[in-house]
Design a protein that fits this description.
This protein has 241 residues and is α+β, with helices and mostly antiparallel strands. 28% of the residues lie in helices and 24% in strands.
Length: 241
Amino acid sequence: MRLPSRAATRAAFAVAALPLALSLAACSSGSSGSSGSDSKPANPNAGVLTGTQLKQALAPSSLMPKGVTPVADGTADSGDDFIAPPAKIAGKTDCAKFGNTYWLDITGLKGGVSFAQSDHAKQPDQTEEITQELDGFRGTTAQAVMKDVRAAVAACPTYTDTANHAKVKITGKETPGLGDEAYTITLTSSTWENGSTLIAARVGTSVLTLMSTAGSDNGAAAGQKIAAHVVKSLRTQKPKS
C-alpha cells in the first residue's frame, strides 16, 4: 500500500510562504537606505529552478505506458515563488518510507525550496503507477540528498509492508550516464505480483525522485525511460535567479 500524494500539503505550504516572502522583501527594501551601502545580500536561491520550471521538465502523459493516465489531484508545483527550506528530521532512518508514493522523505527532508510533481496510474485499480517529483535545493544540498538516499538503502536491507504483513527486500545500485549522478533502487516481495523501481537522479541543484510499478519488470524499463526524459529536460532549463 502506498501513501497518498503530498501535493495538497506542499502546495498550501507554498502559498502560505508567499506573504512571509513579500514581508521580508518589504522590510529589506525599507531598511536599505539606512545601511549606507548599495550592495545586495547574496540570493540564497541563486542557481535553483523554480517550481514552474521544474514542472516543465516533468515527463508528459504522452510518454507514459499504454493505459497509464494522470491521477486526479496528483499534480502540484510551487510556482514562481521559493519556499523556506524545510528542517531536516534527524534520527534513525524510517525504512518504511521507501513504500511511500513520494519517497524523498526517506532522506529526512520533506522537499526543497521549489518542487513539482505528478502522479500517473492505470485506472481504476492503480495496479501500475508512475510518480515523478522534482525538488530544487540551495547550495550543495542536492548532493547531500543523493548521499542520504544511498545511506538509507545501506541502512535498510528490508522493511515491512504493513498492508500485506510482508517483508520487502531493498537493493540499490549506481546508475551511470543519468544526470550528474543517479541511483536506482528495487523493491521486491514474495507476496507482490510485481516490484517497484525507485530512481533518484541529480542535475545541478535539482533532484528527481521517481517511482514506477509499470510493466512486468518491477517497473524498471518504464522508470528508466521517464527518468531519462526528465534529466534531458532539466538540462534545457536555466535558473532565473
